[in-house]
Amino acid sequence: MDIVAGDRLALLPTSFDNMASDDVFVTSYDNETGHTELDRELDFYHWGHHESKKEFYNGADMRGEVLLLTRNILIAGEDIESWGG
To answer: Is residue 77 part of a domain?
Structure first.
């Protein structure tokens, strides 16, 4: 990953509470281990597992989503035959 100190992350809910998300800033990131330090404690518990196998969870994918909010991605498409894009 190309996370660097100062990046803003959002951790999305992993529970039934759709408001249980966190918005944090990275203070340090180790590219080899993936260890990330944040600017503050998280307000909510976020559940996930490094390995998601259907045998473990009745076929459900059990990982939380992390968004990198610091950089933008522009997707430019063409409107072909009114399909959008």
So the answer is: no
**Residue 54 belongs to a domain:** yes
Domain that holds residue 45: 8-68
Digit-coded pLDDT (tens) for 35-74: 999 999 999 998 877 676 767 767 666 678 899 999 887 7
Strand 36-38's sheet: what is its strand order? 36-38, 22-29, 8-11, 66-68
Q: Please tell me the predicted confidence (pLDDT) of residue 62.
A: 65
Domain count for the chain:
1
With contact defined as beta carbons under 8 Å apart, do 19 and 7 qualify?
A: no
3-class secondary-structure state, position 55: helix
Strand partners, 8: 25
Residue type, 40: R
Residue 3: left (phi > 0), alpha (psi -120 to 50), or beta? beta
pTM for the structure as a whole: 0.72
